[in-house]
Amino acid sequence: MPSGVDAVWDDAAGVPVPGIARALEVLAAQALDPAAAALLPAALVHFDRPEPDRDGGTAGAGRPAAAVGSVGGRPAYALARPGEGFGLTALDDGTALGGSGTDAGVLPTAVALGPADGRELFAVGGEDGAVQVWDAVSGDLLHGTAGGEGSQAVAAATVHGVPLAFSAGRAGEIRAWRTADGRGLGLLPVAGAGADALCHARCADLDLLAAGGTDGLVRVWDTATGEQLHLLVGHTDRITALAVLALGNQAVLASAGADATVRLWDLATGQPVAVLTGHSASVTGLAFLPSDGDPLLASCALDGTLRLWDVYSGTAVDGRPTRQGWLTALAALDHDGRRVLAVGDEHGTVVLWDPSGFTRVAELTAPGGHPVNALAALELDGRTRLAVGHGDGTVRLLDPTGAAGPWTAAADGGPVTSLAVCPADAGPVLVCGTASGAVRCLDAATGTDLPLPTPHTGAVSGLAFCPPAGDAPALLVSAGRDGTVRVRDALGGAQLRRFTADRDGVTALAAAEVAGHQVVATGGPAGRVGLWDAALGLPLLELAGTAGPVEVLTFGRIGGREVLAAGGGDGVLRIWDAGDGTAVGEFTGGGAAVRSITLQDLDGEALLACGDQQAVLRLWHVSSGALLNEAEVDRVPLAIAFGDTGLYTVGPDGATAL
After folding, report:
1. 321 strand-pairing partners
2. 352-398, pLDDT tens digit by residue?
3. Cα–Cα distance for residue pair 323/303, rounded to 1 Å
4. What is the CA radius of gyration of the chain?
5. Bridge partners of 586?
6. Would you call 200 helix, strand, or coil by DSSP?
7. Burial bucket for residue 62 (CB in 10 Å: 0-12, 13-18, 19+)
8. Strand order in the sheet with 594-602
9. Element at 591 (helix H, strand E)
10. pTM
11. Do 530 and 484 form a contact (C-beta atoms < 8 A)?
12. Which residues, in sequence order, are bridge partners of residue 554?
């Protein structure tokens, strides 16, 4: 055994195994500031998918939702009740115009009615993040996304010539989808157990997917049929890393776990090949290396050590402390004519090691000191690059020579938890799993986000149709508890833009054409109100907002001015000019949360109507601020509409004409 291996340093290392003190320090900080999670490697943090708020105190999951529009030219309303399905009903006579029961597959949390290209559309958002759109007249399903459990682990490959990505969270099933357009291709069942690590493999002319989860099991499927071929049992704690070595028409799978072991498996038979022991903490990275002799496997762990193993004999070849602290990610790449190992650590540093003598080749550092949570090597324009995903959510593409990296992608979705490279005709695509469960796809050449119709990772809290403007089509805009806004072609369903509006979640949403541009308004639980360019996903204005959570938003016109009205949890309504953000008016209700608002211009006079949580309806004259009427109604008004002879209010049990 070469000098410097385990027998020399295991019991009396010059650099001790990283202690628990720093973990306790950062965990204590996280209790005071959740953002401190970005200071810990992903291997030490269990990122749970955000759960929808069920207390009914703010907009979204857990309470009924309604919208008013038209179906077949008739005034109509859409109503969704949690756990009871959704339906369309005529406003004038209560005729049922379509809907679903409890077996529709969508637990509704938001609805919208609107026109697009001469058709009347009906949209429903679900508790699981799904959005579906129907032709409101015929009842035909036009497009939609299946719900998701959040995707923190990703893998990618070209299967039968089609670039595919696979994604999984810590719950639910594994999803397969096309990276070109985000089209879902099916689910691989994990009995709802989710996965912490994914890996694509090619073996015996089959495209396989391996997944490991918190139960310590590794499952292997044939991706073409969805058939589970192997259940690999051996680890005693959650799986933390997977890697594949192709050997002609055969393949070896390496799995590593929080039990500090590495296991080798014959993918053709599912039989165990070897158990590799020696690490004293969770193994966080695996990478196969070619060799003049037998192929080698490299592994790194939170014990600060980097090790090499002979694949055929299943024995240790070498192992050293790196003096990098916790080692958090590993990748193999070509550099300067040789194969080297890139090792990331808790401090945000990536060190390139020559495995033949465990010598440092280069050191690449990042500002901020956030942990390296994932690494992936790729070829771009004939040069090797290294993609790095950090604990603060940023993704960087590095040049291993130390030259300035081509790009850095800003954080979106929380800490990066995994990376995968998908080959494509237009150039490689970098697929990123994140702590929030949002999948990001980045153009590897430029670092720009590629819009994909992926589901929200929490309940859908708002839906709105936006009319066409110029060459832009009518849009469907959805907002979620995950804090993101998705902008889609209303008729075709293609996702045009995705952006984060409020990291605390979006509680209210509206969309309209303002000065010839398609604009989205969002509100959050802290009272923030923002206006966004729907085409670019860029902020236009941040308004003073409300004193409590923003409960409802709507656009309207007052004397030719395009305005935005907001109702808050404090019962106060505020109106701003939608073009420049100047205040137009403020109207105080009875202190109960506003549940619905509408603006109407009658013979040049603007009226504002609102309903609140105490089932009180109020009507104001906007220019004078005078309260014209106040009345209790028999139901909480979820939506209000002016009719030819008065007001319609839609409550949890249907509509009433006043």
Report:
1. 305
2. 999 988 899 999 887 778 999 999 999 988 889 999 999 998 999 99
3. 10
4. 28
5. 574
6. strand
7. middle
8. 594-602, 605-612, 616-621, 626-632
9. none
10. 0.73
11. no
12. 565
